[in-house]
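User: I'm new to structure prediction. If I give you an amino acid sequence, what do you actually give back? Let's try with this one:
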Amino acid sequence: MPQESKMPALPEITKDLTIPKLFYRIAQKYGRDKVAMREKEFGIWRPITWHDYLENVKYLTLGMVRLGLRKGDKVAMIGDNRPEGLWAEMAALCAGGVAVWLFQDCLVDEIQYIIDHSDTRFLFGEGQEEVDKSISIFDGCPKLERVIWDDPKGMRNYDQDYLMSLKELQRLGRELDKKEPGLFEEMINKGRGDDIALLFYTSGTTGRPKGALLSHWNMLTMGKNLMSLDPCFETDDFVSYLPFAWIGEQMMSVSCGLQVGFTINFPEEPETAQENIREIGPHVMFAPPRLYEQMTRTVQVKYLDSTWIKKKIYELAKSIGYHVADLKFQKKPIPWYWKCLRWLAYISMQKKLKDHLGLSRIRYAYTGGAAMGPDHFRFFHAMGVNLKQIYGQTEIAGISVVHRDGDIKFDTVGTPIPGTEVKITEDGEIISRSDSVFQGYYKNPEATAKTLKDGWLYSGDRGFIDEDNHLVVFDRSKDVMTLSDGRPFSPQYLETRLKFSPYIKDAWVIGDKRDYVTAVMCIDYSVVGKWADENKLSYTSYPELSQKPEVYDLVEKQIRNANKDLPEVARVRKFVNLYKEFDADDDVLTRTSKLRRAFVEKRYGEIVDALYLDSNVVHIDTTITYEDGRKSHIKTDLHIQEVRD
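Assistant: Good question. You get back a string of structure tokens that encode the predicted 3D arrangement of the chain. For your 645 residues, that looks like this:
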């Protein structure tokens, strides 16, 4: 249940205010009296006060200035979510620079493209892995001058003159501070709200990523508008585990976090994020649908492994939760006896389940970046989690539309946040206008002119506004399918329904202007593997398990469930289990886990062709690429199966 609290006192956002000015103001306010961030190291949460945060940023700023950083210069960061990464970003902004974040699992050619295209001068890397990638691209990036690392593990035998440790950079900053003691504050005061703060590269579903230019004003107005709707407080905890290269993480950690002064918590490792979330119990959470889908699978798998009595308690509590949630969705009063039953469901199951998922203190849980299916939405609301859909883009600083408390429709994304206008063009395209709309694409005036017209941001998404003024996002215009009877259909809708099954990790629905709909399925290896063990099926690898006839029958059952209530022409008629999971390293997904449909259709063209031929097998002979650049040759046969009614 969301907690009722009075609104926090938000700072006045003016064209003179910048992120560094706000940071300096709040760091001075709290000093050593409040924890700004925590990082878990060696099993212990290490607190960092606002005073420590300010000191680290100050000396990094002055260190870069001493090395020649000028206003407008680009500073890039790559690595896991750590305090040092946020210090580097804030230091770049304090010096008047522009921050450029890269996903930590980017391949070498992706890193080289962004570093070269952005004209980055300084690159902050976490440790040896990032340094190795930096060395391999250094000669191909003529503007790159320095690579700064902070984790000394494995760094002993590196002697490149452009490498420098973070501690050494801070030492240079301390020396400059002694010579010019007021320089840091002077640089911060020179900043203006219209200055560019971030050069943010979009996920690139159709080709090379584009660099979106976002100003301090863009970021701060967006944060203020969201906080005025769903307030956070200085006593709140937030767990930063999604890549800083994703606008959603910047939105919460920087745009909102600095305005209210909540504590940011960094997991020990990406692999321990879920465990660390449970330890902290954050008050607000923002994540793409994939994370909530994984949480749902976790619960479903635990249910499958439970005893008979636990299953019955879960089923009863779930049915109560679903009924109460549906009453809320319909804005109907909840009778007193259902409130009593809801309390019993909370005590018997929901409380423990929410605690296990790290959602025990959640006031607001947001999802964005892609569509979430109604099944997942209802699941979390039945559990008492105030999950809301967000709609936005990097080009509008992260968010333009969100669900309101008490006004949630899981087939919509809500209504515009304060200060934002949303319209639908004659062609059905969603356009928006606010102070958070970006300044344009870096070195790409053609794309800027296509996306920005008369102050309106053209999203490329199709949708409509319903009778309650809620925005319904149909899909990306280029992704909307035309079914065999001529009606438009969103493949994302069916894909999210398929992924509600614990056995399905990914799904790709095909059928644009074809006689029927088909699908390429990716099983969840761990869940299906456990199911296979229980059913005494032997297997040695993902490709072998995925092609078992019993597994095909299991997947077909999930497809039949998803087909229910769909028009006849929209139902999946044939499917194939892929020999591997979809992976960003293999260019099938973007770094934010969106399916690159045009690319994947080209890559798996022979599979698509076979699904529409009178054939029950497709021969695969291909090469896949891993994060470290290794390639693996795959030669196998995939079975094609028809879905029985």
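You can read the tokens as a compact description of the fold. Here is one thing that stands out. Residues 314 and 349 are 6 Å apart (CA to CA).
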